[in-house]
Specification:
With 102 residues, the chain is mainly alpha-helical. It is built from two helices and no strands.
């Protein structure tokens, strides 16, 4: 678990990112409204095989699902490296620990 100062810094960073994202969404929303009012509605143009393409929501979901799996894999990899390297860390007992006798 991250220390309090580290967690506070991470929370502040994530809050700033969220605010930035909200600002971008608001700007895009305004742009879309402006374009919609200035440009007449265009009938949908049928592209060949367009019905076979995934919709934008599916593309985003798929990309984030993949990124989530990749991040989880990288985390397991990093944790395994740390576990493997633990005997070399300062203060670590270099000899394997024997089971305590009763």
């Amino acid at each position: 678990m991250a220390s309090k100062p580290t967690q506070d810094l991470q929370d502040e960073f994530l809050s700033t990112i969220r605010k930035s994202q909200e600002t971008v969404i608001d700007a895009i929303r305004s742009w879309v409204e402006t374009v919609q009012s200035a440009v007449p509605q265009v009938s949908s143009v049928q592209l060949p095989l367009a019905d076979k393409l995934p919709n934008p929501e599916e593309v985003v979901a798929s990309a984030y699902d993949f990124a989530e799996q990749l991040l989880a894999s990288q985390r397991r990899f990093a944790e395994e490296i740390l576990k493997t390297m633990t005997p070399l860390l300062p203060g670590a007992d270099s000899a394997p620990k024997a089971a305590s006798a009763k």
